[in-house]
Amino acid sequence: MPLLCYGTLAGGFFTDRWLGVAEPTIEDLADIGNRSLVKYKLVIDDWGGWDAFQSLLEALQAIGARHGGASIATVATRWVLDRPGVAAAIVGSRYADHLDETLAVFAIRLDAHDHALLQPILAAHRGPEGDTYALERDKAGRHGRIMKYKLNKT
Fold first, then answer.
1. Residue 141 predicted with pLDDT over 80
2. What percent of the chain has pLDDT over 70?
3. Neighbours of 79 (CB within 10 A)
4. What is the pLDDT of residue 20?
5. Residue 73 and which of 44, 100, 105, 134 are 20 to 30 A apart at CA?
6. Domain assignments of the chain as residue spans, ordered by start
7. Which pLDDT belongs to residue 132?
8. Nearest to 68 by CA among 37, 94, 101
């Protein structure tokens, strides 16, 4: 069964915007008004923390430079599409000026050198294990506390 992947860019964290930026707090992200950023920041923390994430962004940027200046988002999306069993990736482009960057994913192919840059970083940081939604179902846990439950209840 092929997969349709969402969250490909982790709410926008897999973009050039976050490379070299000081670690944001959950409060900073909540003030931006994008709840996805809060959720994905918790996953980044579980995966290995901000410094490890910066290493990953640096590797993605280096790979992009090898491919004609492709963005971090383009390289990250290409990596997802290259995973076994992935049929498609959902990328939420907010503005029309992101369209060219989004479509650039079809113009690049990651090679062995690219994978060699990413492999040690990804191998060192496994992230949350198990059912993706289990963390959100634990209402007392860090992930569950940020969720809004029973929004359709009258």
1. no
2. 92
3. 21
4. 97
5. 134
6. 3-146
7. 67
8. 101
* CATH superfamily label, 3-146: NADP-dependent oxidoreductase domain (3.20.20.100)
- Sign for the pseudo-dihedral over CA of 55, 82, 128, 36: positive
Single-letter amino acid code for the residue at 106: F
Is the entire prediction scored with pTM above 0.85?
yes
Model pLDDT for residues 90-110, shown as the tens digit of each residue = 987 777 777 888 889 999 999
- Predicted pLDDT of residue 87: 95
CB 72 within 8 A of CB 63: no
Structural tokens at position 117: 């840059």
Which tokens hold the place of 109?
A: 């192919």
Alpha helices in the chain (DSSP H): 26-32, 35-47, 50-66, 72-81, 99-103, 112-124, 134-137
Q: Specify the amino acid at residue 101.
A: E
Structure tokens at 116: 């060699």
Q: Rg of the chain's alpha carbons, rounded to an integer?
A: 16
Helix then strand then coil, % of the chain, to nearest 5: 55, 5, 40
| CA–CA separation, 47 and 30 (whole Å) | 20
